[in-house]
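Q&A FORM
Asked by: J.P.
Topic: structure of DNA polymerase delta small subunit

PROVIDED:
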Amino acid sequence: MDVMSAPEARYVRDDAPEQPPRVTRSAAGIKVERNKQFIVPSSHDFDRQYAHVYFTRYNSFKKLIETAATNKWPSKHVVPKLLDIEKEKECVVFGVLYKDMPLKPNILDEYHARENYEAPPPERSKYNSDEDALVLEDMSGRIVLIGDALDVGTHVSGVVVAVLGKALPSGEFQIADVCYPRFPPQKRLPKIPPSYVCLVSGLNISKNDKARLSMQLLSDFIQGNIGSTADQELAASIVHVIVAGNLVWRLDDEHQDLPLYKKRTMIPESVGHMREVDLFLAQMGINVRVDLMPGPHDPSDAILPQQPMHPCMFPLARNVSSVKGETNPYETTVAGRTFLGTSGQGVDDIYRFSTEEDRLRILEQTLEWAQLFPTAPDTLGCFPYHMTDFSDPFVITSCPHVYFAGNQPSFATKLVTGPEGQQVRLVCVPSFSDTHTAVLLNLATLECEPIQFDAP
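REPLIED BY: S.T.
REPLY: Here is the structure written out as tokens.
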């Protein structure tokens, strides 16, 4: 796998001595195709058990993982069910991983602490420990996995795997090798002239005035109102903007200590923040198409997939036809390049429940596992998909050209090459409120670079 080092950030400042003539923007020949697979049907049903999510996932992966395992171990005996394993005989079995973690938050522990006036379990940045163990499950049973072929620390619940090994008299399964679903097929890239997609996330509009100035610089840059001639030519080649969640800061109760009769007459600060977002989107949408994804801080669904934010929250932007509300996760095709991404919840959750420190590596792992949110619904909320009505929409069935995660601590990128020559540009999009950095991706070459907006 080829690792592309992160380039030095380009800076755009608002103290240029003079403004050159604006450059005309052209998006001729750039076709955008939306994918609606993450839209939850209006007839959704929340009465079902979440166990069906794993059954649905297992069924969605069954043919993929069987094909991958047969190609990797053509002469090995395949056991269709865990209950059919014979002890001390080498075989291949399939299933869904469950990670047993003593430190993982448990609602029963929280309830017990509250009922007995005890301190609740402490929040942690990571919940892994030396006592963690992996269990393989299918629709017939489960078995504990042991062996160095499968690293307990870097794996999480919900990953579908095939394992080669044998059952021990103790009832455990000794792993000799492991197989993941192979990279899905990828469409060929048509040749196009240089043009760019801008990725930005984590605006987190709040009382941070410096972040507001940087955000206005971003808007002015995309509109071609600031910068040198070279900056304006670059801005004119931006054909698409993707806002990957967290438009406003966390929508907690802003006046929780005030009495109720005072709260009823107060306008929350978040209303003003949404108005700023609305103006920001409307300004950019006049010049370029803007796709708007919800994030964990935004007024949208608390479970995945998050649905598009309601247009009534954007009275200005909803009148601009080029501003589109999208789901999280999000998939679209721009000039023949498939973009697949999230607002970062999957990467953040895996980071908390694994020993992996590199968020770009976590993003790569989800591509290898062919799953956007493997930890849902164990530690990440999601819609209760049922195998009789749905397939698992979080399964990556087509290899994207660009795969991104928003709201990350810093910018990182990598070019991953698959076994059949697939090439995927991985991008960790940094939180704009913390780094004042957006990402420009060249559609012609799939190269990307950070661009920083410095407000003095």
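FOLLOW-UP: DSSP finds nine helices and 18 strands in the chain.
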